[in-house]
Amino acid sequence: MELFNEHSTIPNLLRNVVANIHNPEETFLIHKRNGVWEEVSYGHTLNCADAVAAFFMEKGIVKGDRMGLMIENSPEYVYYDQGIQQIGAINVSIYPTLSEQEVAYIVNDSGMRAILIGNTFLYKKILKIAANCRNLEYIVPAFTEYQKVSIPEELKVQIIPFDEVLAETGKLKPARLTEIGRIRNTILPADISSLIYTSGTTGTPKGVMLSHSNFVENVKVCLQQIPVIDETETFLSFLPLSHVFERTATYHVCCAQGCRIAYAQSLELLAKNMAEIKPTVMSCVPRLLEKIHDKALKSGTAGGGLKSKIFLWALEVGQDYRKIKEAGKTPGMVMRAKKTLAEKLVFSKIKEKTGGRLKFMISGGAALPKNVGEFFGNLGIKILEGFGLTETSPVMAVTEYHRQVYGTVGRIIPGIEVGIQDIETRQMISIQTHDTFMEDFECAEGEIIVRGHCVMQGYFNKPAETAEVIDKDNWFHTGDIGRFYRGNLQITDRLKNMIVNAYGKNVYPTPVENIYLKSLKIDQIFLIGDKREYLTAIVIPNKENLQENFNLPESFFEKPEIFIAEKEITDWIGQDLKKLSNELAKFERIKNFKVKRNPFSIEEGEITPTLKAKRRVIEAKYAETINEMYAEAVDTD
């Protein structure tokens, strides 16, 4: 049975599953309501989608209209998305954490006609700006408490509860369903499926136009590269569907393959939800894996003694076993016995906390530190890394299930070309495809460029900005620096992040920061040093470790001073910075640092919703402190 054909679009994927894989009564979505996990069938999902389509057809929504969503991951997101897309409307999902000004910009820039809202906080946000949103006609609250919120007198936008939109679920007349089907069949793979606005680390967000073909081809080739995903999987979804990674790697993959999707209640309840749902696959970001890594190490070695010795022994056994397997050899009888014992004493207990059924996790959104990937590999938990951007639908490369090279993001997906271009001369260093893969191939680093089915249609209403990133030969310039290593793509850093010190040395912050993040005392680190003689950093400590070591009350983190002045704390962190500096070249070592009391935040505009640091914002905001670090006498040897 074919999952895809040349006419496949996002609304057709799910209907293909119902026609060929699952009965309509089988479970598709799982979510928690009033403390109880509820299951939603494929049939109910499609009925709700038809109701959404019929409702907005009556309101005059037509193919090409932009329709907004500002809602947490939920069945309601799927009903709305499937409904609008089958009448040719375009999904414009907005990060719930964006400011009122940013939301207003996206609503106006996209020309959005309606928006689905998920909770009271977001509802109040949209009500404040709605009067200044020139094309917005309908606000659709998907929660009952919306009635308790007062409506501004000047508001001319119509409020329509989502329950009213869904009122005709399962009751539509055959003629209406036939009309919906007719429109659905007129949607072409080349038509725009979604506008996804970039995070805007260096300027105004831009609406990335992604077609049905962009998404469908991306899902198709990823399933080819990871052929172990089948219709029995249960994905746990917690990354925002407003981001292209979760949209493709979880939602669209499940729509195509017939997998179940369970929605986590929140990041805070993720561990609890994993134990309850027992997922087989989930998408995640490196920061989550780093936290699991740090917590497991801390728990396993706490207090020393026999427990700590057993834990460290098990990790060593896991590492030896992994390396033998990766070398293509068969572990001997003694090694297999050790691995079995390590599994029983240590690894199984960690795996139980993930639900005990995980086949693998897919890490994306940022580079995963090599030591963290190896740690999970030692436990026998497979982490597949992927790489791409919003502009590339997003996947350009992903780890093959049977071949892991830690510190890389895997093999190029089928059907595209990826080039490495010299940053200064613009000469092509190498061009690789899925078919040219060689396990021992390596090349010099440069900017990563790509062309093929994954590349966006352009930035919405921004031809000049589109021309800046897609050249005359149709190469999309990612702005990322990387190379090929052992046949796989390896990411160094973002081109715009590159630090050039006063002596002309190039420093890519991410790999340096990842070395320092090996310290369990550090939660975040931000490197500084462009046009300076040496590097400095703003360090955010691991709050839990800091509290435990210094017996600090919660009020310590509520003090108005941004930076921690206590010498004993800076000395404590400095010990690890000094030790880890030995792994770096002299010009890459931090010579001075300040300890920030609380993390960089989205609300303060310091990081994007995908947790990428806004370098210009941070450097401008803390310029005085940064200058102080360079004014202080330090040892630069």
Automatic annotation (TrEMBL):
GO terms for molecular function: ATP binding; long-chain fatty acid-CoA ligase activity. Pfam families: AMP-binding, AMP-binding_C_3. The keyword rRNA processing does not apply. InterPro entries: AMP-binding_CS, AMP-dep_synth/lig_dom, ANL_N_sf. GO terms for cellular component: membrane. This is AMP-dependent synthetase and ligase. SUPFAM superfamilies: Acetyl-CoA synthetase-like. Keywords: ATP-binding, Ligase, Nucleotide-binding. Residues 23-460 form the AMP-dependent synthetase/ligase domain.
